[in-house]
């Protein structure tokens, strides 16, 4: 494999506190050197002048839906969408129809990803059998089969005794537990944030406290059991306060937030727009601002797309019956860059950190950094170019995206996985 | 004329539109006193009643209104949703058969709103879950204006299941827009989040809500809609919240009492008070037909077809 020199770009690598004009030399699929004016004889040169070079984005929460719901997405389509969004690795969650509570499904996904995947795919196993929240899945076997962490996705492990066992048991296998903080009794039949807008629309609400009581429970578990808990994801201002309190006390707790919870509010549900129906729900602007602040100060360290493609039929129905989720891989970075960085709400360095080094840390991956010796997973961004979101042009099978028609800035010019171009000149190159 | 092809909620209507509907109703009232209670205004037009949840009173009221305007009415008895057909597909089928106006009642909030976006025919929301029931609120406003001569400045108490009754929230929007002072009286578990931002006062006792009221509107309270979890029992509700003679005495002496939905005597209103309210309730029901005539007529006119 020929050496590759990414020349003349602005290199932003939060894991090394680097933000300056530099070249990146890639040899044998690894980052070889990062520095000014690297001369590399015989290397292919990729001109990055006017472009931003960052570690490839990592996503801790993606639904590829294969196996089980290939009508929504497949590993082939989902990883193409990931590359188009500037991602080089995605961690995929279970599909309800084919839960990763056993090694067979994990192995299938790894094999299929090796065949069809455009970017790296890391399976996330289930915490409990069938994501039922009742009995532990075979966590040890899942770890051996290659599950990177365990999560019951959007099914909360409501039973505190089960969560306690899951935390102490998975620790033996160094398997991070990702908890979806939601009390199902408090959430009841809610379909959006409980507040003035839900009352206006007459839709049953999910109160913020449904999240906060479980977030507080996980703080107590992390503290008293000495286990790390990752909240995946969070949506309310008071949850941010709970996490901040925990971290100040030295409790081992981390959290992630979605792009849509950072950019939109429950007002997006007006007119019963099912593209704004997500779990956790879009909340108030005060919540949104608190979440942005939490990413800015590192209280919430990770931004996860929660890519959830749905079929048209699943979204074109009554709001209460519509499926949750946004097919967000292809818009996540651009929407955040346009909506938060260009408006001055969030520094670019914090955005890139929350999508590279921070998720790598949560999943225990030696990725998300341009440290020499690391796999050369790199994204080269054209931050100036403006484009219009068109869901019909998505690589994802999902068309459910609330940014459809919006003008955004920030699109990858090139994406490299292990030193190979998977996207070049804006087109998937695999 | 109305700005929209549909009537989906009071929230979207402006004050002149509301007044226009009430004025049109007044003009049509005379028809119901004639020996031949029928106008040819909607002859050749087709209206479909699409009721996903049963409501005898609202359905028959629309049916009467259609017939009084000489429209052809299709009452859809057996619903295709049992076959898995979506509401939009059903409505598109009706539209293809020439239906001009579809009256929809649905237990899911927003169903008529989403439907209206997908079809050219006019949609009238006849109650969609906890969202809105605009014609009922207009009926109440019309009945109040007809009886008391005005709405602005009146003290109106709204009692009962404010959380789930689609009519209660439409009443609230409508009366607040028309300048009434609205006081809601219901237990805290039946008050939806953020209601105090709707321009009304919220009380947790009937006594405070009905104090010096010109009008009291009670809404049916039952153990449906999950109220079995929100209320300890109907017995306890009735003890603290039923509109009885003692509580009624706190209102103005000639207070007007309206009710929406079928009465649950002894729960939201005692039998004695319901009896006293009967003349108002009869007027309210009669006005319902006339008001729905006005709405059907205006929507048909708005589309340039009448």
Report the CATH superfamily of the largest domain in chain A: Metal-dependent hydrolases
Termini separation of chain B (Å)?
A: 13 Å
Number of domains of chain A: 2
Low-pLDDT runs of 5+ residues of chain B are none
* Silhouette of chain A: globular
Spatial strand order of the main sheet of chain B: 7-6-5-8-9
In total, the number of strands of chain A is: 19
- Any idea what the CATH architecture of the largest domain in chain A is? Alpha-Beta Barrel
Oligomer: heterodimer
Question: At the first level of CATH, what is the class of the largest domain in chain A?
Answer: Alpha Beta
Rg over CA atoms of chain A: 20 Å
Q: Could you tell me the mean pLDDT of chain B?
A: 92
Rg of chain B, Å, rounded: 19 Å
- In the CATH scheme, the class of the largest domain in chain B would be Alpha Beta
What general form of chain B does the structure show? globular
Number of strands of chain B: 9
Distance between the termini of chain A: 16 Å
Q: Could you report the average pLDDT of chain A, rounded to the nearest whole number?
A: 97
Q: DSSP helix count of chain A?
A: 14
**Biggest sheet descriptor of chain B:** 5 strands, parallel
Q: Please report the number of helical segments of chain B.
A: 11
Protein name (chain B): Aspartate carbamoyltransferase
GO molecular function (chain B): amino acid binding; aspartate carbamoyltransferase activity
Family (chain B): Belongs to the aspartate/ornithine carbamoyltransferase superfamily. ATCase family.
Organism (chain B): Candidatus Coatesbacteria bacterium RBG_13_66_14
